[in-house]
């Protein structure tokens, strides 16, 4: 019996009235997803670059008052976004605020990812009792408002960046645990996991060699989304006065200081608010774009 090679297969014609898909049309369908990824990557990279530059260079010291320069308007030479009520440069504060906000948000998301992955894999791969204990523990932690956790930590440890990171970790870890557990259970039910067990592979080997690589896409996407949520949460805590305080600077703390000048110098609140919006938007677009790229089902659907 003769077989046809891939190059000699007869193409199946499209139904009458339906144009055959072309390479250009497929690229156009992929464009919105690629645009989200590119825009999110550009915005995130810009803020990360600003945070990195702030370590080595600042236009002025953002904590030293210069009363003669107080409330300068945007566009003033040497202070292109103006100054605050004590004459401190807004650009310098935004640069340091980017570093602090990104550090706190990334720190909370990273610790939550590590702890949530360990707990989620343990719940998925262990027996029913361990799974129930971890799952119910996560449910109990999720029932406690994150703001209450932050206030308790601030009252016992004092407010600051470290306290905010711990509050974010306690708040985000249960959600990470549930997501990782669900993804890991889906992988553990696959046939190749059964084959690995028949070959005598241990539980830790199966989790490290087969499960983790197959849920890496979920982990990356969740990290970007909770990174954005961490920046928003930190901004809210600092705005309420239980987050970052001087000499550290964050965008939420800048909003807290600017609220007294609304109506007198409203741009003081606009600049940090705009920075928060753009950073969170960039991370969310990046997460959506990465999900479309890393999820094989969405990739097949797009093609």
From TrEMBL:
This is ABC transporter permease. The chain crosses the membrane at residues 35-58, 102-125, 146-173, 211-232, 268-287. Pfam families: BPD_transp_1 (PF00528). Residues 1-27 are annotated as: Disordered. It is found in: Cell membrane. It comes from the Bacteria. Keywords: Cell membrane, Membrane, Transmembrane, Transmembrane helix, Transport. The lineage of its organism: Bacteria, Pseudomonadati, Pseudomonadota, Alphaproteobacteria, Hyphomicrobiales. It is a multi-pass membrane protein. The keyword DNA damage does not apply. Signal peptide: none annotated. The keyword Signal does not apply. CDD domains: TM_PBP2. Belongs to the binding-protein-dependent transport system permease family.
